[in-house]
């Protein structure tokens, strides 16, 4: 069981590392956000599942197990809303990539509305 | 003021009470046969109050819509269908970030959707945002058709329908199955 927990945490750390590297290397704000989603999903979920297993089988603490699971559920529910709000806010505020995007339907339609 | 629906209040209160049982650890005490009456009564009162005041914000249509087969679909979606998509997208974006020449090709595409209910649309938008590589920027309704603006890290096609197929995959069908 200990082995499985270690694997899960290592897996998470790998994805968090990849996301971090992506955040530094990506060319513009929106691509950086895409990379940060990497951390927000598998980077967190592996640790959460590992924590649940650890609390259940090593600490024998039911309350802690349930609380970690709830933490994971609320994290998953709230995270996409925050990323959506940040991306939309940044776009409406006028953040644009330096290199032109391949296609920008949102910008075209916003201009038409005005 | 809008009329307060009993079913909305009741379902919100039940959800709150379940959450209260979980977060206070009472559910374990119940299984062991010695729950604390004080905590349970406080929970009932607080969840009744919360349900009374906020039920009408949470529940707009059928309150017990999810009970039954749809709940099984929801569980299947959360634990089987969605993790598969998540795995594919995560590996893809991680490899992109770690590869030498950084192959990104970003753009915002406009994608039509057939979902009609608010809950289904919200769930699909959240699922898309949660998958690395795609972020929902906005949802608009034009002439009865719902469109999503999606920022996509690797634009492979600009055609709305084709892009929709590639981004949404099986998610839309499942979202429809659960909420409609």
Short characterization:
The complex is a heterodimer of chains A (114) and B (180). Chain A has 114 residues and is mostly helical.
Tell me the major beta sheet of chain B.
3 strands, antiparallel
- In the sheet with the most strands of chain B, the strands line up as 1-3-2
Please work out how many helical segments of chain A DSSP would assign: 4
Main β sheet profile of chain A: none
* Assembly state (oligomeric): heterodimer
Task: Give the amount of beta strand of chain B, in percent.
Answer: 5-15%
Please bin the fraction of helical residues of chain B.
Answer: 55-70%
DSSP helix count of chain B?
A: 7
State the separation between the terminal residues of chain A, measured CA to CA.
Answer: 60 Å
As residue ranges, the low-confidence spans of chain B are: none
Mean pLDDT of chain B: 84
Please name the two chains that share the biggest interface, counting residues whose Cβ lies under 8 Å from a Cβ on the partner chain.
A-B, 44 and 42 residues
Number of E-state strands of chain B: 3
Please tell me how large the radius of gyration of chain A is: 19 Å
Q: Taking all residues together, what is the mean pLDDT of chain A? A: 86
């Amino acid at each position: 069981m200990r082995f499985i927990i270690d694997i899960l945490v290592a897996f998470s750390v790998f994805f968090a590392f990849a996301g971090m590297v992506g955040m530094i290397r990506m060319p513009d704000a929106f691509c950086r956000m895409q990379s940060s989603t990497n951390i927000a999903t598998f980077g967190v979920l592996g640790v959460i599942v590992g924590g649940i297993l650890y609390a259940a089988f090593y600490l024998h603490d039911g309350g802690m197990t349930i609380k970690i699971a709830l933490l994971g559920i609320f994290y998953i529910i709230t995270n996409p809303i925050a990323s959506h709000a940040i991306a939309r806010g940044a776009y409406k505020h006028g953040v644009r990539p330096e290199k032109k995007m391949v296609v920008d339907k949102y910008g075209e339609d916003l201009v038409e509305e005005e | 003021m809008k009329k307060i629906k009993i079913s909305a209040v009741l379902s919100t209160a039940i959800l709150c009470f379940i959450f209260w049982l979980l977060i206070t650890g009472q559910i374990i005490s119940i299984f062991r046969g010695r729950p604390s009456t004080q905590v349970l009564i406080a929970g009932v009162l607080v969840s009744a109050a919360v349900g009374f005041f906020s039920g009408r914000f949470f529940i707009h249509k059928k309150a017990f819509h999810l009970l039954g087969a749809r709940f099984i679909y929801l569980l299947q979606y959360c634990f089987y269908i969605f993790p598969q998509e998540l795995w594919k997208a995560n590996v893809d974006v991680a490899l992109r970030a770690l590869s030498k020449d950084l192959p990104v090709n970003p753009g915002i595409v406009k994608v039509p959707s057939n979902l009609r209910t608010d809950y289904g649309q919200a769930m699909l938008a959240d699922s898309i945002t949660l998958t690395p590589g795609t972020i929902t920027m906005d949802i608009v309704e034009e002439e009865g058709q719902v469109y999503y603006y999606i920022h996509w890290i690797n634009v492979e096609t600009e055609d709305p329908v084709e892009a929709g197929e590639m981004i949404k995959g099986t998610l839309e069908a499942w979202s429809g199955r659960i909420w409609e």
